[in-house]
């Protein structure tokens, strides 16, 4: 099953839609499709802007698939950066000579939040967007190092609140913290993002790419800060305590279209059956 579908609304403007039922988990197949798509974005001379959205109004990208085949994950070959494909995708997307926009309706947590943070711009539904980094609530280190990107967007204190509190941030609060670029009324989100993308698609690509590169130079964290944190993530998820917390949440409904996933920020702090 294809997890990312592409459409081309206008010259220079690509639109990518996530579709991985039941809740848009980021699994190895999704990572491989993202990897291939970033390669296309880097090499196509005509694309100027891409919008990422979800076919599921409740989940933009839920989070990493904690039940994914660990052997397959370990065997994934490094990308052009020399790093694990998940880290590679986010580094290359952030530095690609195009403008990437996350149009967030529904939940973007964990790796889903990390992907959104790697995009250049994040526009969110004020009523329906929910972002969060819940990993510490399970006893794990957030693997994609969202801390490095959030620190530049939200500042130290708010970054610590987001990652250590492991709670949910609705669209308006995420906007106030700098977690998202702007929160819009839900019925205005798609039209606003489409107008903005079409506007950018009408500009000169070289001017867009060169200007973005200058901003990247003074705002993006060094690429080298990401791989060690992914290693810490894998180590932390192997601990008995973390496995026990994850297993408890899985029994309660994690990774299913359940009350646990809809209200994950509260549920990572709740007591579940042992």
From TrEMBL:
CDD domains: crotonase-like
InterPro entries on file: ClpP/crotonase-like_dom_sf, Enoyl-CoA_hyd/isom_CS, Enoyl-CoA_hydra/iso
Domain of life: Bacteria
Keywords assigned: Isomerase
Matches recorded under Gene3D superfamilies: 2-enoyl-CoA Hydratase, Chain A, domain 1
Family: Belongs to the enoyl-CoA hydratase/isomerase family.
Name of the protein in its database record: Enoyl-CoA hydratase/isomerase family protein
Species this protein is from: Sphingomonas chungangi
Lineage: Bacteria, Pseudomonadati, Pseudomonadota, Alphaproteobacteria, Sphingomonadales
């Amino acid at each position: 099953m294809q997890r990312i579908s592409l459409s081309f609304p206008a010259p220079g403007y690509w639109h990518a839609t996530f579709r991985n039922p039941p809740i848009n988990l980021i699994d190895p197949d999704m990572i491989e499709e993202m990897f291939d798509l970033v390669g296309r974005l880097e090499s196509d001379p005509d694309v100027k802007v891409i919008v990422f959205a979800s076919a599921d109004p409740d989940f933009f990208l839920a989070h990493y698939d904690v039940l994914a085949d660990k052997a397959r994950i370990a065997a994934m070959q490094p990308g052009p950066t020399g790093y694990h494909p998940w880290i590679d995708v986010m580094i290359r997307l952030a530095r690609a000579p195009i403008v990437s926009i996350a149009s967030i309706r529904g939940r973007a947590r964990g790796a889903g939040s990390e992907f959104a943070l790697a995009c250049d711009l994040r526009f969110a539904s004020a009523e329906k967007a929910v972002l969060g980094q819940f990993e510490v609530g399970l006893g794990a280190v957030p693997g994609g190092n969202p801390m490095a990107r959030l620190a530049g967007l939200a500042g130290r204190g708010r970054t610590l609140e987001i990652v250590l509190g492991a709670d949910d941030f609705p669209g308006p609060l995420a906007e106030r913290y700098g977690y998202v670029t702007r929160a819009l009324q839900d019925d205005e989100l798609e039209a606003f993002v489409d107008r903005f993308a079409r506007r950018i698609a009408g500009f000169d690509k070289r001017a867009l790419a060169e200007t973005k590169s200058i901003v990247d130079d003074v705002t993006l964290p060094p690429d080298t800060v990401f791989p060690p944190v992914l290693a810490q993530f894998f180590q932390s998820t192997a601990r008995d305590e973390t496995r026990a917390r994850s297993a408890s949440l899985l029994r309660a409904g994690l990774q299913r279209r359940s009350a646990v996933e809809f209200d994950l920020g509260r549920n990572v702090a709740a007591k579940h059956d042992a």
